[in-house]
């Protein structure tokens, strides 16, 4: 069936050498890009909630379990990204292994994931920003402070709209410039996290770690399922494949190093946080700042709030970047309108695509309450992780002699474990998430058969 037609690996490799996007990123940039995407609401928000409701001081074990699951997927991403260094991440890999219709649907799924993640994170950024300026006695009018339907009298969430448009401006003008800004902000938030560790470690009381597993092992697993989403973002590194100077070498390094550094920081912060404050008191929106206030370090708590805003800003930048690169790759293959893959002559970016995506994300963040829709981000990520594991198995079978700069270890055991873990977590998601996911995928099916199947470059 022509809906299962596949892109040739050799043609993909030839395509990666064509002139288009600017190749200016190295392993260092990619590592910071990954850290920029991963460290945000996970470390500044989720740590407290999971400790209080699920894991207690055993939060550290929840992070280790989730880190291992993400590491399985990271090795699969690293193998594919170094073997087929094409923009589009798992969409491109699926196109080469499972066929066009599956590629379109996972691309469609990822577009929603990154778009909603951008809008949801912008909403969180707005809340932190308003909290920060409130410390200086400044308050936005209620009509401009939140989206309609949140019960706060809002007409538009103006800070969320503005920050997305600022990020869009930056991304549209070049990846090198965007990477520089991301690198600076990543260093700021890493400095703030290290400051918290250094300032807080002296206030750690081992008695706060008892009982260590107040909710039992089941609570640790439930916590792992929740903090799994604190790791979302390292996969976005693979979407930058065509903007990397030495993709075969640098992509695996960027993916694996960013995940390893973030896992280590999550574990250390978890230990210090639950040692400073009894876990039952950590069910707050800003647990890191709360812990510092709890021990009387108010000035450092203020710096942590600034670091949280900086951290969330880098997540915004990488999520929006990844969404644009996915739709760019799909458009170049003929599955979406050609305007989305047009590269600006001066900036060497998908200029129109970037602004279109930015306006849509800003509209969602400004006018829609994302409480229900945000669950789809989790579903989209888990689907992508499972598919990349399957794709590695298929490519090993169909192209055993293909040159691989990096090979995932313990194949086929590692990809199979990745699929099992992701499916288990997907099953644990709420029913409304599955209903929303099925509706979105159904819309994707309709678009594929009405437009993409006929306009596909492979069809021509």
TrEMBL record:
Species for this entry: Fictibacillus solisalsi
Keywords in alphabetical order: Membrane, Transmembrane, Transmembrane helix, Transport
Keyword Glycoprotein carried by entry: no
Subcellular location: Membrane
Lineage: Bacteria, Bacillati, Bacillota, Bacilli, Bacillales
Protein name: Basic amino acid/polyamine antiporter, APA family
Coiled coil, from the record: none
Gene3D superfamilies: Amino acid/polyamine transporter I
Membrane-protein topology: Multi-pass membrane protein
One GO location term (cellular component): membrane
Pfam families on file: AA_permease_2
Entry GO MF terms: amino acid transmembrane transporter activity
KW Iron (keyword) present: no
Transmembrane segments: 27-52, 58-78, 90-108, 154-172, 184-203, 215-234, 255-279, 299-322, 354-373, 379-396, 408-427, 433-451
